[in-house]
Write a structure and sequence with these properties.
This protein is an alpha+beta fold. The chain folds into four domains: 102 residues, Gnk2 domain, C-X8-C-X2-C motif (Killer Toxin P4, Chain A, 2-Layer Sandwich), CATH 3.30.430; 108 residues, 2-Layer Sandwich (Killer Toxin P4, Chain A); 91 residues, Phosphorylase Kinase, domain 1; 205 residues, Transferase(Phosphotransferase), domain 1 (Orthogonal Bundle). 39% of the residues lie in helices and 19% in strands. It contains 17 helices and 26 strands. The strands form seven sheets. It has a six-stranded mixed β-sheet. A six-stranded mixed β-sheet has the order 12-16-17-15-14-13, sandwiched between helices. It has a five-stranded antiparallel β-sheet with strand order 1-4-5-3-2, with helices on one face. A hairpin with a 3-residue loop joins strand 4 and strand 5. The protein is globular, with a radius of gyration of 32 Å.
């Protein structure tokens, strides 16, 4: 039957009234040779080019002064090119003046564009209503009304949701089902609408589309805010952006046919079910044994467990964030040139990070979760839920995410100057960051941490503050990134504990590294290490740079006690920084890396001590890990640890 329908569609014309379609106002008119007509003519020469030059093929404008001001909005279909868009909008201006003669308020619809103009300012306020145009096919499916309604509803709602959550507010789709002919759909909103307003417009359009559906093989609903169209033949350019495999109810048949089939079905079930059960058990046993040998059965179970969490995450973000964007996977593929190696910016424990370019010219950074990583999804969920709610100049901006099957993607603002470690640990680049820039970076990181600990709606402990997680924008302003390991605490909580100790060696506080106890003072410790690294240009973990000391903390403490703390400073800034200021910064850093969390300041204290020269700083005690020393012996390298008296023995030469 599906083949018969498709043949009919090829033979019969698609019976819709031909474009253009107009909605003319019965309100005020303009006179021939009037100022309003002059302004409208001027607008008709500029707006088509403006729309064609926009990546979203959308434009608004206003010409003239009241009461002869002409306001206009135009939007071309997202699958056509700039030249076709310009031609369509130009035709709409000409047809509008002919179809709605001397009307100051008119809307013109074509297949590929929409134009509306008025003497009232509806551009920014959305005043005036959508001015719907509805066209329905006279051809009908042979399937039941219920089946048709179910299929069409699945198609338009899935496509509308994808469009509302995309940056261009545009999406196409195809629905395939064995019991129903293939259908195609296109949905689009004005890109200046929020995701919520776009979704609301789509709901109104879908209600009108389904109101008089009556098994029709095609329908279009066009408005000045959004449009929606489905047909049984492909009417848009390019491949569908979304493929939908629906599970529709079978078409209704006559009772006598159903009764005849029921007996056959029961017989088939009686024979097939036992055989299928036996076969399924055999297949499951074989698959289980193979996966057990390969050691991936745990990962599979984690991925299965994550799926309901993924759905919950999507709905929670859709409800709470109007600025957060759900990108389509195809959209991200195009932006990153199919995750080209040339676009790769780096790689971390979460997965690789790629540079991308959206159609509107916006540069993005895309963090791609390594496939089948149960641990990675936990970090992914953490980062999305946390950063989507945080707004601060010194925190990296999360623009949106993409969740499709095994693909989990985070989309950030692109920061061209990479991360802090790229500059301070590289001898060729360290001179690019003078003391004034380093001081601004230190203060920015401190302000970002203070926001997380005190001023955000949630008290957040980052747990992985380090140089590579401080990104720099075009003006070298710091932004704290990578919240995959972060923890949320209530305002009454001062600390928490975990059996899963994660973080970066060299930045972890002693109580967290040895006992799993974390608090805001854990971040303060990491900040202290980072502050010493910025001042010295040395990594905390490079023990070969510190003589007998295993880390930067012990080396700094030795210089402090000897009164030669000035030797800590990186050569390129040693002559730029005032000695009193240098001593204050080193003093603050040593206070932050005290062995006991109670002896460390809060970030509020740190900001006050860095900003106010009149604050009298207490003398610091020795830092954590300060007496980890390298003892040179003939056969081994012995390290004595201060926190738990563990002795680590390693071979003097690497293998």
């Amino acid at each position: 039957m599906a083949m018969v329908i498709l043949l009919l569609l090829l033979v019969l014309p698609f019976a819709l009234a031909g474009p253009p379609w107009q909605v003319c106002s019965n309100g005020s008119k303009y006179a021939p040779n009037s100022a309003y007509l002059e302004n409208l003519t001027l607008l008709s020469s500029t707006l088509p080019k403006k729309a064609a030059s926009n990546a979203t093929l959308f434009a608004t404008d206003a010409v003239g002064v009241a009461p002869d001001t002409v306001f206009a909005v135009t939007l071309c279909r997202g699958d056509i090119n700039a030249s076709a868009c310009e031609g369509c909008v130009s035709s709409a201006f000409q047809e509008g003046q002919q179809l709605c003669p001397y009307s100051k308020d008119a809307t013109i619809y074509y297949d590929t564009c929409m134009l509306t103009f008025s003497n009232k300012n509806f551009v920014d306020t959305n005043v005036g209503g959508p001015n719907w145009n509805i066209q329905r096919s006279v051809l009908k499916f042979t399937a039941s009304a219920n089946s048709t309604r179910q299929m069409v509803s699945t198609l338009i709602n899935s496509t509308a949701q994808s469009a509302a959550n995309s940056s261009r507010r545009f999406w196409t789709s195809r629905l395939d089902d064995s019991s129903f002919p293939t259908m195609y759909c296109l949905t689009q909103c004005r890109p200046n609408l929020t995701a919520g307003d776009c979704a609301s417009c789509f709901r109104s359009a879908s209600q009108m589309m389904l109101q008089d559906l009556d098994r029709r093989v095609g329908c279009r609903v066009q408005g000045t805010w959004c449009s929606m169209r489905y047909e049984a033949n492909k009417f848009f350019q390019g491949d569908p952006m979304l493929l939908i495999a629906a599970s529709a109810a079978p078409p209704e048949v006559e009772k006598n046919v159903q009764q005849h089939r029921q007996k056959r079905v029961l017989l088939i079930i009686a024979v097939a079910v036992p055989l299928a059960s036996i076969l399924l058990c055999i297949i499951c046993s074989v698959v289980w044994m193979k996966r057990r040998r390969k050691g991936i059965i745990i990962i599979t179970s984690q991925a299965t467990t994550n799926r309901p969490e993924e759905d919950e995450l999507v709905w929670r973000l859709e409800e709470n964030s109007s600025e957060f964007t759900f990108f389509g996977f195809t959209e991200i593929l195009h932006a990153t040139c199919n995750f080209s190696i040339k676009n790769q910016l780096g790689r971390g424990g979460f997965g690789p990070v790629y540079k991308g370019l959206l159609p509107d010219g916006t540069e993005i950074a895309v963090k791609r979760l390594a496939s089948h990583s149960g641990q990675g999804f936990t970090e992914f969920k953490n980062e999305v839920q946390l950063i989507a709610k945080l707004q601060h100049n010194n925190l990296v901006k999360l623009m949106g995410c993409c969740i499709q099957s095994d693909e989990k993607l985070l989309v950030y603002e692109y920061l061209p100057n990479k991360s802090l470690d790229f500059f301070i640990f590289d001898g060729n680049r360290t001179t690019l960051v003078d003391w004034n820039k380093r001081r601004a970076i230190i203060e920015g990181i401190a302000q970002g941490l203070l926001y997380l600990h005190k001023h955000s709606r949630l008290r957040i402990i980052h747990r992985d503050l380090k140089a590579s997680n401080i990104l720099l924008d075009q003006d070298m302003n710091p932004k704290i990134a990578d919240f995959g390991l972060a923890k949320i605490c209530s305002s009454n909580e001062t600390q928490g504990s975990t059996n899963r100790i994660v973080g970066t060696h060299g930045y972890m506080s002693p109580e967290y590294a040895s006992e799993g106890i974390y608090s805001i003072k854990s971040d303060v410790f990491s900040f202290g290490v980072l502050l010493l690294e910025i001042l010295s240009g040395k990594m905390n973990s490079r023990h070969h740079e510190y003589g007998d000391f295993l880390n930067l903390l012990g080396y700094t403490w030795n210089l402090w006690e000897g009164g030669i703390w000035i030797d800590l400073l990186e050569v390129s800034i040693a002559n730029e920084i005032d000695k009193t200021e240098a001593k204050r910064y080193i003093n603050v850093a040593l206070m932050c890396v005290q062995e006991s969390a109670d002896d460390r300041p809060t970030m509020s204290d740190v900001v006050a001590m860095l900003d106010n020269e009149s604050v009298v700083l207490p003398e610091p005690n020795h830092p954590a890990y300060f007496n980890q020393r390298v003892i040179h012996e003939s056969a081994s390298l012995v390290v004595s640890c201060s926190t738990n008296d563990v002795t680590i023995t390693a071979e003097p030469h690497g293998r």
